[in-house]
Design goal:
Strand content: 25-35%
Shape: globular
Largest sheet: 5 strands, parallel
CATH architecture of one domain: 3-Layer(aba) Sandwich
Oligomer: single chain
Length: 428
């Protein structure tokens, strides 16, 4: 079977690496891909939002499965585009409908869904330029700190947490009136701050049944000890020690089951991944956010832990028979360390030559922001350049391998956090 994977980051290289291992996979195409995906499949110069071109390619190349990596084509309705075409609708596509993608595309939609289906989440209200003054009053009604979220997609950077009420009011005005995040912040969700420790839980569903994938903890801030600005993610650990069987049972019963049932109840077509960002508050799970695809860099820690055939799992998801396919998980710990360009998450250079990346040994080196130049060299092409994943019997042994590999990779301006996983060892 020919498979098309959409996307170009570390998440997509990890998915491509796993898909290519399946005996069901004849040819793997990745659009647009990166220098890493080119090692396991064929890169195709095609935008993830050019639905007409994607549709033509799928039919011309007799693609039998489409896997959507990033959120943008889902929010823009790629599944609906396929469903509207008599030929394309026969091809299983992994991803929700445009309405289902609003779980990530609109914070207000997600919070309303959570509330409607009695799923635990923080108290919230939504504001626009029409009721800005009410927003100020709502801030005054909450204890510090204050959480402000741009309603729309803001490349993972639309969340601001502030300790001071006046600063929060100024930020609210800047987001809405000053259009700090463009169209994404014409609506802003303000919610109460939940104190606890974060966790990412991943679910694969065909709309009726589901499979609980390995959980992970990611590290969003640029600096050690969670300092500095937010990024797309600087590392991940899976499994997570505090995610005990008892806690995960609560997650399944209180969050996963009502989410899958809520989507069906609301008539929302959903075949694909659900990323549930959780807060463990005193042993009870609360939903912080939904994403409608796998997280990055969590994918790079989670997908390698799936020991079975990912193509079989995804095909079953697309065909509505997920309950027929078992899921087997590697019990070892995976630690992922992300290497970034100097200056990230602000301005950074591209086109810097990379070396040492093919010396993986015991580690998996997933390309994130890389490309090949005209001389056949691998060069940097993004803020996050590599995600290195290693297995170990525990966090300490896995992280030692990942950091040893990180030292081998060389490019000007290379930076990474040095403390991924240390908080889970009690050393943070």
């Amino acid at each position: 079977m020919n498979i098309l994977l959409l996307g170009s980051g570390g998440r997509e290289h990890a998915l491509a690496w796993k898909l290519a291992q399946s005996p069901r996979c004849s040819r793997l195409f990745v659009a647009p891909g990166n220098a890493g995906t080119a090692l396991v499949g064929t890169n195709v110069s095609m935008s993830v939002t050019n639905f007409d071109a994607i549709g033509r390619f799928v039919l011309e190349q007799q693609v039998g499965l489409v896997v959507v990596g990033p959120e943008e084509p889902l929010v823009k309705g790629i599944r609906d585009f396929f469903e509207a075409d008599a030929n394309l609708k026969q091809v299983p596509l992994i991803g929700p409908s445009q309405l289902g993608a609003q779980l990530e595309g609109s914070k207000d939609f997600a919070k309303a869904f959570l509330t409607r289906h009695h799923i635990p989440t923080a108290r919230y209200k939504t504001f626009t330029s029409d009721n800005l003054e009410e927003g100020y009053t709502f801030i005054d009604s909450l204890p510090a700190p204050y959480v402000l979220k741009a309603d729309g997609l803001a490349a993972g950077k639309g969340v601001v947490i502030l300790e001071d009420a006046e600063a929060a009011k100024a930020e609210l005005k800047e987001m809405i009136v000053g259009k700090k995040f463009g169209a994404a912040s014409t609506q802003v969700v303000i919610e109460e701050f939940l104190r606890g420790i974060e966790l990412s839980v991943f679910v694969l569903t065909d709309g009726r049944s589901y499979r609980l994938l390995p959980e992970a903890k990611d590290y969003k801030r640029i600096g050690d000890r969670d300092t500095g600005p937010n990024t797309g993610g600087m590392g991940a650990v899976s499994p997570v020690p505090f995610a005990t069987p008892e806690f995960l049972k609560k997650v399944e019963e209180r969050i996963v089951v009502p989410t899958v049932q809520g989507l069906a109840h609301d008539g929302i077509a959903y075949n694909g991944f659900i990323f549930i960002g959780l807060m463990n508050v005193g042993g009870d799970p609360y939903v912080i956010e939904y994403n409608v695809r796998m997280g990055d860099p969590e994918t790079e820690a989670v997908i390698p832990r799936i020991t079975g055939d990912l193509v079989e799992l995804l095909l079953a998801t697309g065909q509505g028979r997920l309950s027929e396919v078992p899921l087997a998980i590697d019990p070892r710990t995976a630690v992922t360390v992300v290497l970034v360009s100097g200056g990230y998450p602000n301005d950074y250079k591209k086109g810097i030559q990379v070396s040492g990346h093919s010396e993986g040994g015991e580690s998996l080196v997933f390309h994130a922001g890389t490309s090949g130049n005209e001389r056949g060299e691998v060069v940097t092409n993004g803020g996050r350049v590599f995600a290195i994943t290693s297995f170990g019997r525990d966090i300490a042994s896995a992280r030692a391998l990942s950091y040893a590999m990180a030292d081998k990779i060389r490019y000007e301006g290379k930076y990474h956090r040095t403390d991924i996983g240390l908080d889970l060892l009690g050393e943070h």
